[in-house]
Amino acid sequence: MIKVLFFAILLAQKAFSQDTWDWVRIDCGSDTSYKDSNGDTWDSDDDYIKTGDNKQVASTSSSDIEQLNTLRVFSEQNKNCYTVPTPTSARYFVRAMFWYGNYDGLSKPPTFDLEFDGNKWATVVTNTTSFTYYEMIYATKGDSISICLARTRDQEFPFISRLESLPLPDDMYPQMRRDMAWFIRYPDDKYNRIWEPQIPPGLDSVTANFTSLDETSVNVPPDSAIIKAVEASATDRINLSFGFDNVSHLDHVEMYFTEPFLETSETRSFNVTVNGSFVNTTTPEYQICTSVWANLQSIGTLDIELVPTEDSTLAPIISAIEVYTVSQPLVIATTSQNDCKTHFTLKFFNSNT
Ligand SMILES: *[C@@H]1O[C@H](CO)[C@@H](O)[C@H](O)[C@H]1NC(C)=O
Ligand SMILES: *[C@@H]1O[C@H](CO)[C@@H](O)[C@H](O)[C@H]1NC(C)=O
Ligand SMILES: *[C@@H]1O[C@H](CO)[C@@H](O)[C@H](O)[C@H]1NC(C)=O
Ligand SMILES: *[C@@H]1O[C@H](CO)[C@@H](O)[C@H](O)[C@H]1NC(C)=O
Ligand SMILES: *[C@@H]1O[C@H](CO)[C@@H](O)[C@H](O)[C@H]1NC(C)=O
Ligand SMILES: *[C@@H]1O[C@H](CO)[C@@H](O)[C@H](O)[C@H]1NC(C)=O
Ligand SMILES: *[C@@H]1O[C@H](CO)[C@@H](O)[C@H](O)[C@H]1NC(C)=O
Q: Which residue ranges does the record assign to the Malectin-like domain (predicted)?
């Protein structure tokens, strides 16, 4: 699983490097800037932050990602901030990665806070077995984003291994409020989202008999994520559950469907409900990706059900899902009414890889 994830990230980077967008890529802790094997330039920290010390991570690191071999640690001040330029007026995708790698030989992976523009983004809990990362979409109001690492525990010093940002097209996720943060996993995504393959228990894996889509959704999920789907057995329903804190939050759900086979004598149709509320009736179409979305206020578990309609002869099917959770309004000087952020997201669909 971990291997697959590394592979996925590397592939995603590769696909993305063909585009000409204005990335900021920082290999934290690196003494020099350099070009990686894809020809992408990774900067050292110098242009973005003044505090901190560069450290080398032992070569026994569990990671294949080159940028995780160094880190920058902050042992002096409580809060240390990177200034990441955002020259384009756009929503930015930001990712921060952390790999402790026992750089200090103490086998004490720290816990600390990650913040952006004065807002809490995440509590980073590092460990000795794998790296961790956080991703966010954020509509910045100024010409830079401040990404800060804050000490929250005595003698546990924040560090960071890799930090990157890129602008996203305006028309993606039109129903989402504009300031968001998310985690998602999968290879070959044009927008570098990482989509995580998963087969929920009780569901069957299905691969479509086509290799690319004729039409897709405005959010451009990667074709490979849509072509593989999960299906209920017989005409059962599909139940999906996402656990969140018992705190009231706004959720945004995007679900993606396609009909994997051209079967003219059969009908596949199902109702989508989110936490018991009807959202839409869906009939997936061959070689076309359709999506159904919902915004809702919820507390705790988010339950999604796909229930076959009376005339359906085939079971419900789903290719991919994104769940975003928006937290409290942002704290920004130049604030607007609908500022908010997501602090937790999931994405899943089925894949055999
Ligand atoms: C280490 O952190 C990763 C990423 O947050 C997590 O998936 C994994 O379960 C953690 N491992 C342990 C042993 O806590
Ligand atoms: C899905 O949940 C409904 C109630 O919420 C339950 O009646 C049904 O048995 C569940 N189906 C499966 C396949 O888990
Ligand atoms: C949320 O509340 C329910 C019921 O009160 C409880 O069973 C569950 O463990 C709580 N979940 C969390 C994450 O606190
Ligand atoms: C997919 O299935 C349809 C209908 O059975 C068939 O016409 C088409 O040739 C198949 N395509 C491939 C690539 O197998
Ligand atoms: C419901 O389905 C219709 C037809 O596919 C689509 O136009 C509409 O946007 C969908 N609504 C939601 C909330 O997903
Ligand atoms: C959604 O349903 C779950 C399970 O029934 C419940 O715990 C949660 O509070 C609901 N969320 C709402 C009503 O927003
Ligand atoms: C599906 O939704 C439609 C429209 O709300 C409703 O009339 C129908 O009873 C629903 N079917 C099932 C099986 O839930």
A: 26-326
Residue 120 burial (CB < 10 Å; 0-12/13-18/19+)?
Answer: middle
Domain 196-348, CATH = 2.60.120
Lowest pLDDT segment from 12-21, 66-75, 124-133, 170-179: 12-21
Atom of ligand 5 nearest to the CA of 291: 14
Residue 102 corresponds to which amino acid? N
81 contacts: CB under 8 Å, gap ≥ 6: 49, 146, 147, 148, 149
Ligand 3: residues within 6 Å at CB?
Answer: 245-246, 300
Atom of ligand 1 nearest to the CA of 131: 4
What is the whole-number distance in angstroms between the Cα of residue 132 and the centre of ligand 1? 7
Structure letter (DSSP) for residue 195: P
Domain boundaries, the chain: 24-170, 196-348
Give tens-digit pLDDT for 139-150.
777 889 999 999
Q: Do domains 24-170 and 196-348 have the same CATH topology?
A: yes
Domain 24-170 top-level CATH class: mainly beta
- How many beta carbons lie within 10 A of that of residue 51, not counting itself? 15
For residue 335, what pLDDT is reported? 28
CB 271 less than 6 A from any atom of ligand 7: yes
Per mean pLDDT, which of 34-43, 134-143, 242-251, 312-321 is the most reliable? 312-321
